[in-house]
Design a protein that fits this description.
Elements lengths: L7 E6 L2 H16 L3 H27 E7 L3 E3 L3 E10 L5 E8 L10 E5 L4 E9 L4 E13 L5 E16 L28 E10 L11 H7 L3 E7 L5 E5 L14 H18 L4 E5 L5 E6 L2 H13 L7 H8 L8 E6 L5 H6 L8 E7 L10 H10 L3 E5 L17 E5 L5 E5 L1
Parallel strand pairs: 3-9, 12-13, 12-15, 15-16, 16-17
Antiparallel strand pairs: 1-9, 2-4, 4-7, 5-6, 5-8, 8-9, 10-11, 13-14, 18-19
Helix pairs in contact: 1-2, 4-5
Length: about 425
């Protein structure tokens, strides 16, 4: 839960003509004393002072409290924020204007209301998060004043809370990722060339088996010759390389190449981590991301956070491949997600295979954005070089569906991954 109150108050004279009128009447009274000037001066000055005290009191006793239970959410999820405007003074606020400064798209918390003395007004606002990124809820300008319209009070609420909107995890078509290493599946194999030091099981000796592999304790116990069956080399790690070269980021909103690429990377990372693979991420976004392959929920959070903040950058895919080549390690799978159809980066890709890095390329079809793009040529060039290639047509990844609007009391629950979700009863 987050709550925040006002931080700074300013008062503004809306009717400066009254100050001029008071000065003029005072001058007349000094030069030509008259009961008429006295009555007018007393009435107008009294109203001026009363208006000032009224506005000053409201400025010190109007309080806005905002509450939200979310620190992060995924694209397509809903947030709810509760507002409480209280007036602790003995004077009513005939008009109150709240101008919200939240940065979350399509979240409009502006409100006009009035509030009696000693009362409070409470309401809630629900919004669907349709855009990933880091946003802020909070920051508001509250305006009020006296009922005569002479003074206006502006309360600046500068405190706010952050909201991280993570990319969607979408259902993907079957995508074959080329395995890396000599074997890659970690299953027991007879006379594995690239073996670990752990024995997976034992079996009876066959002609041709190495005598070095005889398991003597089992042989003595069973009175037969048994050999150790060693585990093959464990499966290589996944490196996901997300190409966000700004020269190929066509479209806007969910249908854009940028959003489709990020969603694809997030979905692949999620699938790999669920399969208990070590997954890493590299992006050539404006702030280049480099996350070494790891397993677990902590790695999922780190990758999703990086993807939520990723945006188009100026580095080309060819430049990125040149820079990362010495740091990728050996015997890993490199998954490249790109909309780049120029063939210059293929020359940089091929030397990576000398270290046992097996690439798989997912090409986003941008021909519907630019009719000069011929994606089949790039796909054919990759396949001729023995590189696994998949073409992802536009619209293959569906946008998130907005949850149906419901009525009832809102309750909050925590998921096993730590996300706070709201449910109406």
């Amino acid at each position: 839960m987050q709550s925040y109150n006002r931080s700074m108050t300013r008062m503004h004279l809306r009717q400066p003509i009254l100050a001029v009128l008071i000065a003029f009447l005072l001058g007349l009274q000094l030069m030509q004393p008259s009961r008429t000037w006295t009555i007018l001066l007393t009435g107008i000055t009294g109203m001026f002072i009363a208006a000032y005290l009224w506005a000053w009191t409201l400025g010190r006793n109007l309080h806005l409290r905002r509450e939200t239970h979310l620190g992060w959410i995924q694209v397509g999820g809903q947030i709810e924020e509760r507002f409480t405007l209280s007036n602790t003074s003995s004077l009513p606020a005939s008009w109150v204007q709240i101008n919200d400064q939240s940065t979350l798209p399509e979240f409009n918390a502006n409100r006009s209301t009035s509030i009696s003395a000693g009362y409070f007004d409470q309401w809630s606002l629900t919004a669907t998060c349709n855009q990933r990124g880091l946003f802020y809820l909070g920051g508001a300008i509250i305006q009020t004043g006296d009922p005569f319209g002479i003074f206006e009070v502006t309360i600046h609420d500068s405190q706010r809370t952050s909201l991280l909107v993570l990319p969607q995890i979408a259902a993907l078509p079957e995508i074959m990722i080329a395995p890396s290493g000599a074997y890659g599946d970690g299953r027991p194999r007879r006379n594995a060339v690239d073996q670990t030091i752990h024995a997976a099981t034992v079996r009876e000796y066959y002609h041709g088996d190495s005598t070095r592999m005889i398991h003597w304790p089992t042989t003595a116990r069973m009175n037969k010759v048994f050999v150790r069956l060693m585990e093959s080399a464990p499966e290589g790690k996944w490196w996901i390389l997300l190409d966000l070269d700004e020269r190929h980021m066509f479209g806007k909103g969910w249908d854009s190449v940028e959003e489709q690429s990020v969603t694809l990377a997030a979905s692949l990372a999620d699938a790999g981590l669920r399969a208990r693979k070590s997954v890493g991420l590299i992006t050539n976004s404006k702030q280049m991301a480099w996350i070494n392959p790891q397993k677990g929920e902590g790695q999922r959070w780190e990758i999703m956070q990086a993807l939520a903040l990723a945006g188009p950058g100026r580095l080309t895919l060819s430049t990125v491949l040149e820079r990362i080549q010495p740091s990728l390690g050996r015997h890993h799978s490199l998954i490249i997600i790109t909309a780049t159809t120029k063939s210059n980066w293929l020359k940089t890709l091929l030397p990576i295979g000398k270290n046992g890095i097996i690439p798989s390329v997912i090409l986003l079809d941008t021909s519907t954005f630019d009719n000069t793009v011929v994606i089949e040529n790039t796909s054919a060039a990759l396949q001729q070089r023995g590189v696994t290639c998949h073409i992802m047509p536009r619209g293959m990844i569906e946008p998130p569906k907005a949850p149906p609007q419901q009525r009832g009391k809102m309750k909050w629950y925590s998921t096993p991954t730590g996300e706070i979700v709201s449910v109406r009863s």
